[in-house]
Design goal:
Elements: H1 2-17, H2 29-40, H3 46-73, H4 78-89, H5 100-103, E1 111-116, H6 131-141, E2 145-149, H7 159-170, E3 182-185, H8 191-200, E4 204-208, H9 209-226, E5 230-235, H10 238-246, E6 251-254, H11 259-266, E7 274-279, H12 289-298, E8 303-306, H13 321-329
Parallel strand pairs: 1-2, 1-8, 2-3, 3-4, 4-5, 5-6, 6-7, 7-8
Organism: Tribonema minus
Protein name: indole-3-glycerol-phosphate synthase
GO molecular function, one term: indole-3-glycerol-phosphate synthase activity
Length: about 350
């Protein structure tokens, strides 16, 4: 009972943070850092770490039940075949490159991972469209991949949502823009979750260094590679970056940082490693997150992981999912103009052959 209450408290704290005030003016490092502290609290603070530990315990219990239920109902499920395959092949420490080629673009440009989620912290819209309706918007906007937030307490998506997106994307196979691959985002604590993602058709999974620790993260990364998938290791600080690099991670996703701190962390990520950064939704009604994306691009990041920022403005034509993704990918810079309005000279574009059409 206490475990359930703790998880509910964690979700409640996330909801409360959605209504804090964040400056809507142009990104300034000091102000952004201050705004971040007011929204999320100090990272590493004991209560936050305690809640993370409780969330981990809850997820372990949830996965154990799911595994037991599947063994009872479908003992010959493909999930168990993949579990066996992964366990046998993990020792080879394979590092297949299946996500990296999708997300790595020309220097000075960004790819976008568009995340579909059902649970929103935003106070401006109550719900989002069904996956069958949003999936083609991700593609039309120019996203490179779709992520499905599977954790039921944070993302709220289900296996059915993953299948729906993959089915819709399959319609575009052979077209331009083509079908987008799917990545599952979950609190991965067990190989069973990776094997399950494989059966659904995902090409990658997220693994949180802060949640499972370096030793367990290494095991999960090896297991993921053995299934011809690629692990995206989520990191929040320099210590986790160094630990992820030591275990041979090929993709790092910087999460839980304001833009200025994310820019500093990029200095510790070599160019040979694909660098993704999660851009959090601000609590105002503007879209200054777009400028954050441009600043992060100019600091060397390869990809933006866009989650709730995609949905904060609803489906107005100028602020829809398609418009937000296109704005993130725009060949623009805060050095020459603002993301909103028509100010600035408009220079600063970095165009490359084969990017003009997209």
């Amino acid at each position: 009972m206490r475990l359930v209450l703790a998880v509910q408290l964690l979700a409640a704290l996330a909801c409360v943070s959605a209504f804090s005030t964040v400056p809507s003016s142009r990104f300034v490092a000091a102000r952004a850092a201050s705004a971040w502290s007011s929204q999320t609290g100090v990272r590493g603070h004991a209560p936050v770490m305690a809640l993370k530990g409780l969330a981990k315990k809850a997820k372990i219990a949830e996965v154990a039940k799911a595994k037991a239920d599947l063994e009872a109902s479908s003992p010959h499920s493909a999930v168990f075949e993949y579990l066996k395959q992964g366990q046998e092949g993990a020792a080879a420490k394979a590092r297949p490159s299946v996500v990296t080629p999708v997300l790595r673009k020309m220097p000075g440009t960004l790819s976008v991972v568009a995340e579909y989620r059902r649970n929103l912290r935003s106070g401006f819209i109550a719900s989002i469209l069904e996956p069958e309706l949003l999936s083609p918007m991700f593609r039309d906007g120019g996203a490179s991949a779709v992520a499905i937030a599977l954790d039921r307490n944070s993302g709220g998506c289900t296996e059915a949502d993953v299948k729906a997106v993959i089915k819709e994307q399959s319609i575009a196979i052979g077209d331009f823009p083509g079908a987008l691959p799917v990545i599952t985002r979950d609190l991965v604590v067990d190989e069973f979750q990776v094997a399950h993602a494989k059966t659904l058709g995902a090409i990658g999974v997220t693994i949180s260094m802060g949640l499972v620790g370096p030793e367990r993260a290494a095991e999960l990364v090896d297991f993921t590679g053995a299934l011809d998938m690629e692990a995206i290791v989520q990191v929040t600080n320099q210590e986790e970056v160094e630990a992820a690099l030591q275990l041979g991670a090929t993709i790092l996703s910087v999460t839980g940082n304001p833009p200025d701190e994310a820019c500093d962390l990029k200095k510790h990520i070599p160019d040979s490693v694909l660098a993704i950064v999660h851009v959090d939704r601000r609590s105002d009604e503007g879209l200054d997150e777009i400028e954050d994306c441009w600043i992060l691009r100019d600091s060397g990041y390869n990809c933006i992981w866009a989650s709730e920022m995609l949905y904060k403005a609803g489906q107005m034509q100028a602020e829809s999912v398609i418009a937000v993704i296109k704005a993130i990918r725009a060949k623009a810079s805060v050095k020459y103009g603002r993301a909103r309005g028509m100010s600035g000279r408009g220079e600063g574009a970095k165009e490359f052959l084969a990017t003009l059409a997209t």
